[in-house]
C-alpha cells in the first residue's frame, strides 16, 4: 500500500510541493509574520500598519501606484485595441514588420524605455533642448506622473495588442456584416459588436498589464523623481542604511501583496461573468482602404509603431556616440562605449546575465514539463494546489519577492543571500508562470489516446512520458521558455535587492550606470540587452513555427 502511494508521480508531486513551500510560501509567510511582530520584543503588534496609514506620505504613495496603474492600463487598452483592429481590417503596408516592431518594444525592460525617454525629454534631452532653444520654452523634462504613465503605457500596450489580435482571429465577420447591413457606422460596429465579443480578452490582457505596471520598480525610480510608488518605497525603506526598518518594509510589502491579490481575484470574478467561446465560421478579412480612411489608418499605425520602438532606437543610436567622462555626448560617432564595457571593465555582469539565466531556464523547463503534465493528466487536490501556487509569483511583485527571499535565507541553515543560487531561484520563481501556462496549454491539446496507444504496445508509463509526451510538448515548452528567458534578461525588481558584486546582471548594471549618470555605458549595455531580446524573439518564431505572436 505504501509502495503504491509513493509511486514516481506522487514523489515528483511531493518534491515540487516542497520546492514551492520552501521558496515561495515560506518566504511570503515570513514577510507577513515580520510585518506583525516587533523585532525588539518579539510580541504581536499592528504598529507597522498603523504607522503606514497614519502618515499621509505612505498611503498617498499607495494611491500613486494605483493611479499610475489604472491610467496606464486604460491608455494601453485605448492604443492596443484600435491598433489590433486596424491591422485586422485594413491592408497596411508593412503590417508584418510593424507587428514585429511592436512586439520588440514589449520584450524590452520598461526601465530601458524610461532611460531612453530621459535621453529625449529629460532636462538635458535632445527634444527638450530643441523645444527650449527654438521656442524659448522653459520645459523642465518628462518627470513625475506624466513620464511614468508615458513609459509604462508605451511599454504595455503591445501586450493588449497581442492578446486582442488573437481574439479577433476568432471573431465571426458575419456579425459585423449584419450590423453594417442594419446601418451601423464603423465606430458603432466596433463599440456594439467587436468590443462586447472580445471583452474577456480585454479583461485578461488588462490584468496582465495591471499586474506588470503596479509592480514595476525601474521606471518610477528613474523617471519619477518626487512621484513615488510602492515598489520604490519598499526598496528605499528596506535598503536605507539610515532609518531603514525591515519590519515596516515587511508591512508595506504585506499591504502590497493584499492589494495585488485582491485586484487579481476581482478581475477573475469579473472575467467569469463574461466567459464564452467564439468560433469564426467566417474570419475577418483584411481589405484595402481608400481616401482619408486609408491615410488616417496608415498614419495612426505608423505613429504608434514609431513611438513604441523609439526607446530601442535611441539606446542603440546613443550607444555609438562618443562621450566625455561617460556623461556628455560630443556628437561624434565612436565605439568608445563598447570598448569601455567590453575591454576596460569586468565582463562578469554580461556573463552573469546569460549564465544565471540559462541555469534558471533549465530548471524552469523541467518544472514546467512536470507541473503541466501533473495538473492536466494527474488532476487531484494536491496538483490543483500546485497549479494555484505556481501562479503566485505572477501576483507577487518582484521587489516583495526579493525582500521575502532575504528574510528567508539570510541566516543558517539556509544562508543564500548574495549567492548566485538565490539569483537563480528568484529568476525561476518570478518567470516560471510563462512556461507553465504554455506547457499546460499544449498538454491539453495532446489526446490521451496517444499515451494509451504507446502503453498498449508494451511501453511503460515512464517510457511513454519521456518518449511520446515530452517530445510532443517541446514546441510549447520551448516557446514558453523563451518568453521566460526574455523576461529574465530584464529582471530588475528582485535582482536589485538580491544581487552582490559577484552576481550583478546587465539589468542591474544599466540601472546603476543611469543612476551614476554614465549614459554612454548605460546605452551600450542596453543595446546588448535589446539585441539579445530580439534574437531570442526570432528564435521563438523559429521554434514555434509562427509568423506572429498571438495569445
TrEMBL record:
Instruction: Please report a single Pfam family linked to this protein.
Output: BPD_transp_1
Q: Signal sequence: where? A: none
UniProtKB keywords: Cell inner membrane, Cell membrane, Membrane, Transmembrane, Transmembrane helix, Transport
Which topology term describes how it sits in the membrane?
Multi-pass membrane protein
Source species, domain of life: Bacteria
Give the location in the cell.
Cell inner membrane; Cell membrane
PANTHER family recorded:
FE(3+)-TRANSPORT SYSTEM PERMEASE PROTEIN FBPB 2 (PTHR43357:SF3), INNER MEMBRANE ABC TRANSPORTER PERMEASE PROTEIN YDCV (PTHR43357)
This one is known as Iron ABC transporter permease
Organism for this UniProt entry: Alkalicoccobacillus plakortidis
Amino acid at each position: 500500500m505504501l509502495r503504491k502511494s509513493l509511486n514516481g508521480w506522487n514523489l515528483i508531486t511531493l518534491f515540487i510541493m516542497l520546492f514551492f513551500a520552501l521558496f515561495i510560501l515560506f518566504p511570503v509567510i515570513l514577510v507577513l509574520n515580520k510585518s506583525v511582530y516587533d523585532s525588539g520584543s518579539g510580541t504581536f503588534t499592528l504598529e507597522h500598519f498603523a504607522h503606514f496609514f497614519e502618515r499621509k506620505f505612505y498611503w498617498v504613495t499607495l494611491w500613486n501606484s494605483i493611479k499610475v496603474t489604472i491610467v496606464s492600463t486604460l491608455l494601453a487598452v485605448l492604443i492596443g485595441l484600435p491598433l489590433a483592429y486596424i491591422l485586422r481590417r485594413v491592408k497596411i503596408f508593412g503590417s508584418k514588420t510593424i507587428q514585429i516592431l511592436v512586439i520588440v518594444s514589449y520584450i524590452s525592460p520598461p526601465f530601458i524605455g524610461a532611460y531612453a525617454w530621459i535621453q529625449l525629454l529629460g532636462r538635458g534631452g535632445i527634444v527638450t533642448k530643441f523645444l527650449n532653444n527654438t521656442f524659448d520654452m522653459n520645459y523642465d523634462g518628462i518627470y513625475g506622473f506624466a513620464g511614468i504613465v508615458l513609459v509604462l503605457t508605451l511599454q504595455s500596450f503591445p501586450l493588449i495588442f497581442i492578446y486582442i489580435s488573437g481574439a479577433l482571429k476568432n471573431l465571426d465577420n458575419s456579425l459585423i456584416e449584419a450590423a453594417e447591413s442594419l446601418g451601423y457606422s464603423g465606430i458603432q460596429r466596433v463599440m456594439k459588436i467587436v468590443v462586447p465579443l472580445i471583452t474577456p480578452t480585454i479583461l485578461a490582457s488588462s490584468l496582465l498589464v495591471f499586474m506588470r505596471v503596479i509592480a514595476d520598480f525601474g521606471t518610477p525610480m528613474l523617471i519619477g523623481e518626487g512621484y513615488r510608488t510602492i515598489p520604490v518605497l519598499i526598496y528605499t525603506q528596506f535598503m536605507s542604511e539610515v532609518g531603514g526598518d525591515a519590519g515596516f518594509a515587511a508591512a508595506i510589502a504585506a499591504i502590497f501583496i493584499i492589494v495585488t491579490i485582491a485586484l487579481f481575484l476581482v478581475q477573475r470574478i469579473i472575467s467569469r461573468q463574461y466567459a464564452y467561446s467564439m468560433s469564426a465560421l467566417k474570419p475577418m478579412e483584411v481589405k484595402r482602404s481608400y481616401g482619408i480612411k486609408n491615410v488616417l489608418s496608415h498614419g495612426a499605425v505608423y505613429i504608434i509603431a514609431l513611438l513604441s520602438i523609439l526607446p530601442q532606437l535611441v539606446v542603440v543610436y546613443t550607444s555609438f556616440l562618443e562621450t566625455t567622462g561617460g556623461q556628455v555626448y560630443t556628437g561624434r560617432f565612436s565605439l568608445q562605449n563598447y570598448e569601455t564595457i567590453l575591454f576596460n571593465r569586468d565582463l562578469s555582469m554580461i556573463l552573469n546575465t546569460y549564465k544565471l539565466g540559462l541555469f534558471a531556464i533549465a530548471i524552469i523547463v523541467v518544472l514546467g514539463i512536470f507541473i503541466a503534465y501533473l495538473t492536466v493528466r494527474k488532476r487531484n487536490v494536491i496538483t490543483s494546489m500546485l497549479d494555484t501556487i505556481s501562479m503566485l509569483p505572477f501576483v507577487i511583485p518582484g521587489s516583495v519577492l526579493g525582500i521575502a527571499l532575504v528574510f528567508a535565507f539570510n541566516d543558517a541553515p539556509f544562508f543564500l543571500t548574495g549567492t548566485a543560487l538565490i539569483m537563480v531561484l528568484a529568476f525561476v520563481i518570478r518567470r516560471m508562470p510563462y512556461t507553465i501556462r504554455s506547457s499546460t496549454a499544449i498538454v491539453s491539446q495532446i489526446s490521451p489516446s496517444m499515451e494509451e496507444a504507446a502503453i498498449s504496445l508494451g511501453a511503460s508509463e515512464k517510457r511513454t512520458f519521456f518518449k511520446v509526451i515530452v517530445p510532443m510538448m517541446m514546441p510549447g515548452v520551448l516557446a514558453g521558455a523563451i518568453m521566460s528567458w526574455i523576461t529574465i534578461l530584464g529582471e530588475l525588481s528582485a535582482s536589485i535587492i538580491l544581487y552582490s558584486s559577484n552576481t550583478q546582471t546587465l539589468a542591474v548594471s544599466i540601472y546603476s550606470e543611469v543612476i551614476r549618470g554614465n549614459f554612454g555605458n548605460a546605452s551600450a549595455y542596453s543595446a546588448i540587452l535589446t539585441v539579445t531580446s530580439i534574437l531570442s524573439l526570432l528564435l521563438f518564431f523559429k521554434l514555434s513555427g509562427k509568423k506572429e505572436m498571438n495569445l
